[in-house]
Specification:
Radius of gyration: 35 Å
Distance between the termini: 104 Å
Number of strands: 21
Order of helices and strands: HHEEEEEEEEEEEEEEEEEEEEEH
Helix content: 10-25%
Strand content: over 45%
Structural class: alpha+beta
Number of helices: 3
Length: about 290
């Protein structure tokens, strides 16, 4: 067997004739492997905003792209959104004519923009390319929709009174986020937090974080911050919350005691209101 192999390859005429054939096969195989359509595996869109569906076409120079398109796969079948033809230009389906446009269509790039994304736009999209010689090539991407939460802080129902026990200071709410927002209170005070999550329509979630703390007069004017993290936010979202702590003081005037409620910054100063004006003062300050 070894002698036969040496005999065949020892024949210079056969070997020299076989080399071009091997080169051709290698070139063809390499060309086939190099030809592909490249799209991201998944695209995340923010509800109500625009999203770009990128599609890059990598083909050999000896291949001719005849047409490319974006299609959407639905349970009822496949729907064509947009078509690019190097000779005839672009075409957008009537249903998407006001929401879809090509960025800079070419034989190498057929990326599109989908405007005003809604929940109905979630699903699978395919970038399809038709070439002369190889036929169809395509790649699929999945569009998911996230929702930026509405964030706000509400104070507790009771005023913060120095010396009182643990009191609900404030509640931070991240409303209807998709996915659920990460939310927490940032403070150097020895408070406690409670997290409550509740499901909402369209797969959204409302998350509330309550902050409890036993008020002390020395914390008047200090702040804590509600911090929210979510994929739809480019950075942490912060809402500062300033503490207003009330205190009760007594001053000895003419050998009589007078009680009043005053803000922390008044405590320790010779300021007090007689009992007859206590109700009016407290009403004004506690509103």
């Amino acid at each position: 067997m070894a002698e036969e192999v040496r005999h065949i390859f020892g024949n210079s005429t056969f070997f020299h004739g076989f080399l071009p054939l091997m080169g051709l096969l290698l070139s063809v195989c390499t060309g086939v492997w190099a030809n592909k359509v490249v799209v991201p595996e998944q695209v995340t869109a923010v509800l109500g905003k625009n999203v770009t569906l990128t599609c890059r076409v990598e083909v050999s120079t000896n291949l001719s792209l005849t047409q490319s398109s974006w299609e959407r796969r639905l349970p009822s079948g496949t729907v064509t959104l947009a078509v690019f033809n190097p000779q005839y230009g672009t075409s957008i389906a009537d249903e998407y004519s006001k929401r879809v446009h090509f960025i800079k269509p070419s034989v190498r790039d057929i990326s599109i923009v989908l405007q005003g994304v809604g929940f109905a736009d979630m699903g699978t999209y395919a970038c399809k390319v038709v070439t002369f010689q190889l036929g169809n090539m395509q790649a699929s991407t999945t569009v998911d929709v996230i929702v930026e939460p509405k964030v706000y802080v509400t104070p507790g129902s009771l005023s913060l009174l120095d010396g009182d026990g643990e009191t609900l200071v404030a509640t931070c709410t991240a409303e209807r986020g998709r996915p659920a927002a990460e939310i927490f209170w940032e403070s150097d005070l020895p408070g406690q937090t409670t997290v409550v999550s509740q499901p909402e329509p369209e797969g959204t979630t409302t998350t509330l974080v309550q902050y409890f703390w036993a008020p002390t007069r020395d914390a008047f004017g200090r702040s804590l911050s509600c911090v929210v993290r979510h994929p739809a936010l480019s950075k942490d979202f912060r809402i500062p919350y300033r503490l207003n702590v009330f205190c009760e003081c007594e001053l000895l005037l003419s050998k009589k005691r007078y009680s009043c409620f005053v803000f922390q910054y008044l405590c320790g100063f010779p300021v007090c209101y007689k009992e007859r004006s206590l109700l009016t003062f407290a009403t004004l300050k506690l509103r």
